């Protein structure tokens, strides 16, 4: 999975680069992805996730175990 947040599902989107003379050329807006390692105490193991910064905030808010449980229910291999 390249450039996709595992929690929020954010992917790159396309748009235009606009010059001073208003010439438009294609460009990509990439999500702010980070590779994070978390320790999952319920399973006593480390997991590595590719997350956007919004995904990191989601884990901080809802808890790692709840987020991992939902990802596995969707079929994500973790």
Low-confidence stretches: none
Q: What's the pLDDT, averaged over the residues?
A: 95
What is the count of distinct domains? Answer: 1
Strand content range: 35-45%
Outline the fold blueprint.
Layout: E1 13-18, E2 24-29, E3 33-40, E4 45-52, H1 53-62, H2 64-73
Antiparallel strand pairs: 1-2, 3-4
Helix pairs in contact: 1-2
Give an overview of the whole structure:
- By secondary structure, the chain is α+β, with helices and mostly antiparallel strands.
- It has a single domain (13-73), classed as Ribosomal Protein L24e, Chain: T, CATH 2.30.170.40.
- Helices cover 26% and strands 36% of the residues.
- It contains two helices and four strands, in the order E-E-E-E-H-H.
- The strands form two sheets. Strands 1-2 form a two-stranded antiparallel sheet.
- The longest helix is centred in the C-terminal third of the chain and has 10 residues, at 53-62.
- The radius of gyration is 16 Å and the shape is elongated.
- The protein starts with 12 loop residues before the first strand and ends in a 5-residue tail after the last helix.
- The mean pLDDT is 95.
Defining traits:
78 residues, alpha+beta, Ribosomal Protein L24e, Chain: T, two-stranded antiparallel sheet, two-stranded antiparallel ribbon, 4 strands, 26% helix, 36% strand
């Amino acid at each position: 999975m390249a450039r996709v947040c595992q929690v929020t599902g954010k992917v790159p989107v396309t748009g235009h680069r606009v010059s001073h003379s208003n010439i438009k050329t294609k460009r990509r807006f990439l999500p702010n992805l980070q590779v994070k390692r978390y320790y999952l105490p319920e399973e006593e193991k480390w997991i590595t996730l590719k997350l956007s910064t919004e995904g990191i905030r989601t884990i901080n808010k809802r808890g790692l175990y709840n987020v991992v449980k939902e990802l596995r229910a969707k079929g994500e291999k973790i």
